[in-house]
Amino acid sequence: MTEKLFEAKTGRRPAAGEIVVVPLDLVYAHDGTFGLAVEVMRQTPLLDRVFDPEKVALFIDHAAPAPTVAAALVHQAMRRFAREKGVKLYDVGNGISHQVVADEALVRPGYFVVGADSHTVTGGAFAAFATGVGSTDAALAIATGKLWFRVPEQVKLILDGAPPHHVMGKDIVLSIIGMVGSDGMIYKAVEYQGSGLRYVSMDSRMTISNMAVEMGAKVGLFPSDEIAREWFRVNHGLEVPRLEPDPGAEYSDELTVEMPSLEPVVAAPPNVDNVKPVTEVEGVEVDQVFIGSCTNGRYEDYVAAARILKGRRVAEGTRCVAIPASRRVYRKLLRNGIIDILVEAGCFVAYGTCGPCIGAHLGLLGQGEVAVSTTNRNFTGRMGHKESKVYLASPATAAAAAVTGKITDPRPLLRGDQPLMVVDPSYSYTP
Amino acid sequence: MAWIIRGRAWRLGDNISTDHIISGKYKFAKINKLEDMLPYVFEEVIPGFYKKVQPGDVIVAGRGFGYGSSREHAPRLLKLAGVGAVIAKSFHRIFYRNAINIGLPVIVAERIPDVTQQGDTITIDMEGGVVRNETRGVEDRFQPPPPVLLEILRAGGIVEYIKRNNRLPW
Predict the structure, then answer these.
(1) Residue B40: partners with Cβ closer than 8 Å, 6 or more residues away
(2) Exposure pattern of A281-301 as b/e (b: 16+ CB <10 Å)?
(3) What pLDDT digit, counting tens, does each position of A82-117 carry?
(4) What is the reported pLDDT for B28?
(5) Does CATH place domain B4-165 in 3.40.50.300?
């Protein structure tokens, strides 16, 4: 499918390894990376311009609202730039970039998208060639509307069969990372296919694409199939084209994930590929649970948490922080009474920021503390003190840890056997 | 004129992440003052690195160098600290791009990391695609970057390239 995406943009199918310059459909940056980009643009006359303000978006999301004066100064600089150049700035209260671009249909099948953030790959869930770059590349992209790419090799990743009802996108992608390693897919375009796709919701596809970078991949692509197209109809009233790989497409490698054999897993500190079944680490005492981030801050994630937290309380001695990724997600949760379930259980709720994921604010860890988190990285010191530890998990596994105060298999605590991955975009949870 | 880089080796392992180079939380404590972040470079991996590193030192690492974030602070801080080049068995792609853009030479070489020990003398022929561990007498070949990327590196980064040539690379 990657070759088709390049062909649509350049008029021919380049070979893997070739360097091509591609016109972009969307470039975005946030308050963590835009500061350096602005510097680059200001100090280089040829770059002090915006190619097309309609195709550029800025987000205040990492430290939002500003927890330090330093952050406040960056936010001011971003607002100044946005005003000057006529670029849209999604200020405090909107949400995390990778979620908002989905909420606003800024990423669509066939688009080439670069973001000054490694998790720009989330957009691959929408069959877009979405990939992360640094601040200087972002400045180049914003100024010229183009960027050079080394065409990646395509890897076919087959999701085969139906997963158990308690398995979420996070369990699928962590299992893959555990299989291939954190450098297993360096420079590759991972393309998800197979009979299992029909069980994977868009929310979960975003989770799976989001963590493509954690296996080294350049992009993690899902096709624009009926599930994706229905999502665009229901959420945006939009018809988007079908986009699927050709039957005869060639791949450099092929992997299969047997979905029925999947189970809830965690990535144990200090590496994302240190993946184990949750049953292997049960009993570890947990100080903080975080449910949120661009990886798992969506509607389906909090429905999963609510199915475990409803009528229960967060354990004494454990904090639970829940931060839905955007205003749009938060409002739907409010309407469905899910925020009430979380707060009633004892969660601290905010919305629209990365917060503790990168150790910015809203719940850093102290010395020796252990967190179970729905985020995407667990390097030493990422969420706070250098002697703290982070286990990555699905929202269901995180909610289970919140209830018991220890790492816990979520299966016994989950009521009902409806799948946690909610494929129907019109679904509304009734508590 | 040939472009030869020569320096003392810092031997590192596999999967050195951008978080290892500089933890994300410093970005929010001291935003955009790169110099202020120097003391924290590699603080979990090599405490006091910024004092121990000498200008021109070459990092020689295993697989998966630059794993993690797109934060450009990581290669910029290595360059600021005095690192002359990074050799690794493989790089994560965003780090690789960022390094080129800010003028930090990055070289993919399979054999040299296997034979190199801390403090060895390394020479790199950037155009010829040859890297030598002078101390161990081992030579390895690598694919030199395409001419335009080589020019960007040689200029000291893409901003320097643009200013020097008064145009973009494409």
Answers:
(1) B22, B23, B26
(2) beeeebbbbbbbbbbbbbbbb
(3) 999 999 999 999 999 999 999 999 999 999 999 999
(4) 62
(5) no
Contact A134 B71 (CB under 8 A): yes
Per-domain residue ranges for chain B? 4-165
How far does B125 lie from chain A, in Å, by closest CA?
23
Domain ranges within chain A, ordered by starting residue: 2-150, 154-261, 266-413
User: What are the backbone dihedrals phi and psi of residue A28, each rounded to the nearest 5 degrees, phi first?
Assistant: -140, 160
Phi, psi dihedral angles at A279 (to 5 degrees): -60, -25
Which chain B residues are closer than 8 Å to A212 by Cβ? none
Percent of chain A at pLDDT exceeding 70 = 100
A76 touches chain B (CB under 8 A): no
- What is the CATH number that goes with domain A154-261? 3.40.1060.10
* Chain A nearest-CA residue for B68: A214
Domain A2-150 has CATH 2.60.40.10: no
Closest Cβ opposite residue A21 in set B73, B146, B170: B170
Does the ipTM surpass 0.85?
yes
Hey, are the CB atoms on B28 and A377 less than 8 Å from each other? no
Encode chain B (170 residues) as per-residue pLDDT tens digits.
789 999 999 999 999 999 899 987 776 655 557 888 899 999 988 999 999 999 999 999 999 999 988 889 999 999 999 999 999 999 999 999 999 999 999 999 999 999 999 999 999 999 999 999 999 999 999 988 888 889 999 999 999 999 999 998 87
Q: With an 8 Å Cβ cutoff, are B91 and A271 in contact? A: no
**Contact state of B64 with A182 under an 8 Å Cβ cutoff:** yes
CA closest to B24 among chain A residues: A358
Strands A370-373 and A253-258 turn out to be unpaired
The pLDDT of residue B32 is: 58
Q: For the domain A266-413, what is the CATH superfamily, name and number? A: Aconitase, domain 3 (3.30.499.10)
The model scores a pTM over 0.80: yes
Q: Measured between beta carbons, which residues in chain A are less than 8 angstroms from residue B14?
A: 183
- Looking at the complex, report in whole angstroms how far the Cα of residue A67 sits from the nearest Cα belonging to chain B: 9
pLDDT in tens, A133-146: 999 999 999 999 99
Among B30, B63, B170, the residue with its CB nearest the CB of A70 is B30
CB contact under 8 A, B23 and A134: no
